[in-house]
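Reproducibility note. Readers wishing to regenerate the assembly model reported in the main text can use the exact inputs given here. Chain order matters: entities are listed in the order in which they were concatenated for prediction.
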Amino acid sequence: MKLSLRLLACLFASASLAASAAPLGRDDAQHLLNRAGFGARAADVADYSGLSRDAAVARLLGETPREAASPIPAELADYVSPGRIRQLSDEERRELQRRTGIALRRWWVDTLFAAQSPAEQLRERMTLFWHNHFVSSVQKVKSARLMLEQNRLLRRHALGRFDELLHAVAKNPAMVVYLDAATSRRGSPNENFAREVMELFTLGEGNYGEQDIKEAARAFTGWSIDPATGEFRWRPIAHDDGFKTVLGVSGNLDGDAVLDILLAQPQTAELLTRKLWREFVSPTPDEREVKRIAGRLRAFGYDMRVALRELLLGSAFWAEANRQSLVKSPVDFVVGSFNTLGMEPPDTAALAGLLRQLGQDLFAPPNVRGWPGGEAWINSSTLLARKQMAERLLRREGREDLRQAMLDPAYQLK
Amino acid sequence: MKRRDFLGGISAAGLLGLMPGLLPAVALAAGASPYRRLLILVELKGGNDGLNTVVPYTDPNYYALRPRIAIPAGEVLPLGEGHGLHPALQPLLPLWQARELAVIHGLGYPKPNLSHFRSIEIWDTASRSDEYLQQGWLARSFLGRPLPAGFAADAVVVGSQDMGPFSGGGRVVALSNPEQFACLARLAQEGGGRGSGALAHIRRVESDIVSAATKLSAPASGFALRSEFPQSGFGTAVRTACQVLGSGAEVAVLRLSLAGFDTHQNQPGVHARLLGQLAEGLAALRSALIELTLWDRTLVLSYAEFGRRPRENQSNGTDHGTANVHFALGGAVRGGLYGEAPDLARLDADGNLAHTVDFRRLYATVLERWWGMESASVLGARFEPLAFVV
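Running the prediction on these inputs yields the following structure tokens for the assembly.
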């Protein structure tokens, strides 16, 4: 009995080994690149065809520069403090928000197009993934410069360690403003950040109690920003250094200690793995695989490359049933279409506006849960706006064959 | 405080079930569908602060809990029983005086959840706090009792992307501009919901577009509304809703939303502005629906994920709360105060209000009283309708 089990295990292992050593066909390369980046470019499909799955995924997960390839626009060069904003007239203030808001969004669209290699595109996909995980919105933060800095932070950690990212993003000025930590103080803590960090960033609903939130909110008091410089500031006077208990761990906990408690829970890696599964593999995570991959993610110090490697080499990723099972996000649709067609993007500020119309206003997700994604991307108004883009783009180019293909419902899938 | 629920202990739907003669006449007309009475939902996204909307201005506890952000007693618009409207709601006073505005206190559910997303999901799916349902309550109604084929769509969502109570069923169209919608719809393909998963969803949306567009594209003989609409985003959404209705296209439900009620910080100015937009928009809605002779068969209901914490926070704002007050408006609405305002002296362990009226009674009122249908199959159990619809 024991022997036959071991034999079976060996057979399975060698079967999956064989699959990952077999060379990628064009369809396989396209599938991998569409999921890892934004619209496979013809030259990259040719490059990746013929590689083994292992080799292709290793190449995707290779090191890339950790900064955006597009330069920071002049409009975002300076941080404008609330004090300076208060001195402006209403009209000047609106104009500042408008101008910097457009520059900010255009910069990100430029950055998406500037990602040359598939590995850089994966870095960009993960940056966007983190934006939708650690949500902040320029509409509340009201500083394009702080949002830009948050975006750079997400990019630097895009394929790094989740625990480091969590600690860093929790003290990121845009996040501190977005979830009201800046105004939370000893004696009357604001619960917003404490709640969302448990519900959305780590454990997930149902894995903590209201009391945990109250205690954690006390621990996070004192994390603030210096409004004059826009930098994180620790304010010991506002911090509640009393005794607290979060998820059964007691002590004079501070914010970092609470984050470590949350990182020590298995649910955190599982929530993350489930979310990555929906991003890369299919709309329906396989719970056994989720548990296995989450276990490895924790065992390897929350190294995101470990989880991505497991997901991209897993049999579910390559299964026929899961191909074309994900709905393209607006960024997939817009950026991906230009990449796949090999067309130069026109005015990227206009494309940022189009993304907003399609339901993905960069730097301004609808609420702290982010864009729900999947089928929710497609409703009657967003679907018509997608078709309108295809129509305008290809009618001008006189490409009737492509126009028909892009109007087909299946074009919305990847 | 006194209960103003006129029903007492008698189950109205029980009576109706035994005596079909009491069903609303419109539902019994030959071939008529119950959905011919219109429902307009107004979602106050972020969790409106009910205590500063309908203010308990005679309760000293209210002023003790909110030393900085309370509405001064001298500024509220009194409704009776110690409650008054926020001054920014002035445009609603004529409706109150015409007894077309019902104020329902204490709406909530047991074991309240303080997360925006989970709590609005509970409201949208009409679930219990510990129950996870996939379909919205109106989606379940549309699927259980389909609309007549002649309707342009089951529901129209104006100016928002999320499907809320329509998730997972029914023919729902989201639009911001009806003319543009009709013009673009020719790019959609009639293909039915073939295929599986996401592809089936996309094909269904295409079919819904095609069928809605054919009906919305004929604005009833160039009908132009004389009513004026406020310049705000909400005012624009109200105008769009009225254009849809003015085209003569039939729909069962329209949903509008007004966002920004998550007032953790500096609440007073933001909240006054939002309530002003809401009240002006609703007054314009009434005026346009009277013009379209629809006001007497329209029920407008507000809802939100939760109310806000009675005690103000350190940032001149309020944190997430529980029970809340909501409005019902319409020509056929019996105006007045309903439910029971939660006791500010008896807050729960989190310092929040205890609800007094289950929110599913609101939905039971829509299903049973407004549409004349049974409600238990949609709501999972029987909930007593409220008396603001006779």
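We highlight two features of this model. Chain A has 22 helices and four strands. Chain A touches chain B at residues 180, 183-185, 187-188, 190-192, 195, 199, 205, 210, 214, 283, 324-327, 359, 366-369, 372, 374-376, 378-385, 387-388, 391, 407-410, 412-413 (CB under 8 Å).
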